[in-house]
Design goal:
single chain, alpha/beta, Rossmann fold, 7-stranded mixed β-sheet, 26% strand, binds adenosine-5'-triphosphate, nucleotide-binding
Amino acid sequence: MTTSTSVRAEPADTGPAPVLVARTRGLRKVYGSTVAVDRVDLDVPKGAVLGMLGPNGSGKTTTIRMMLGLVRPTEGEVELLGQPLPDGAAAALPHVGALVEGPGFHPFLSGRENLRRVAAFEPLLATGSLKQAVEDALERVGLASAAHRRYRGYSLGMKQRLGLASALLVERRLIVLDEPTNGLDPAGTREVRNVIAELKNNSTSVVVSSHLLSEIEATCTHVAVLHRGTVVAQGSLAELLQAETSALMITTPDWLQALNVLRSARISARASTEGLRVELIGTTPPAVLEALVKGGINVWEARRQRTGLEELFARLTEAEEAEEGLSAVDTIEEGA
Ligand SMILES: Nc1ncnc2c1ncn2[C@@H]1O[C@H](COP(=O)(O)OP(=O)(O)OP(=O)(O)O)[C@@H](O)[C@H]1O
């Protein structure tokens, strides 16, 4: 038996659908025998800062590359600023700034020279304003003082900053940043956070992928959680944290027995320092309490606990793994 753990936050009222700056439907990418991305339906509302969260190999970079038209999907559709890819790429891409892995900077040119070369290919940048745009972008990412140095000698963090600067050369409608804080020190991480906050204030839409859940929680308005190539949760951050994201903390002297009772009832739970933590996925507090009482467990206290994004992420990904474990048990039992 498998149950979907996908969580999609629904808006409270059914007002007009938000304008989307990027939209994917049924996106799938297969490399040989590896399914990198599968059935990804992603909505990036205008003005949103959407955080793409997922462990290593969950498909964030592949999804981002497909959204930017850098990788052709095996199946599915991408719409960027209302333009279907690949046909609408020329119309959409000048309005989209991107920092993706391995930007092709020249090792023997300085940061400034590299950025000027990139700027020369920006269709939205007038030749007369090119130099100033480069200086502004360098300043914005904190690279002005090292701009004369050769790219070859840059640290990973400096390379990231230069990549970010190239995304910021002109005012964009959408900025896509793949792991922008990768290799940055805490000061650099704060700067990236400030840049994202500035973009948000200017109503520029942003897609940012990261492992740093606290960063996403601090900077994003929306979140999409990826796990093994699929989106397991998506929506506005506030709605996601409210919708089914709580746990029930149970205090009982019979916690080991209680764990067994809950497991037989297929309710996901684990012992923690605060008590028995029961995940409210596909179950409700009354159902949990009923199972415990029927199982002869002494429940001393039960209280709802709201969870942070980190908890939500761990819960979604762990729940899927736990289900897979249960499915394996089912298979063994059926086969026995
Ligand atoms: N060009 C490729 N050829 C073969 N396999 C690939 C290729 N690109 C990605 N993959 C595989 O697809 C899966 C998803 O990778 P992807 O880089 O999209 O994940 P990610 O979430 O961005 O991971 P990370 O945080 O480590 O960058 C992984 O199993 C990866 O090994």
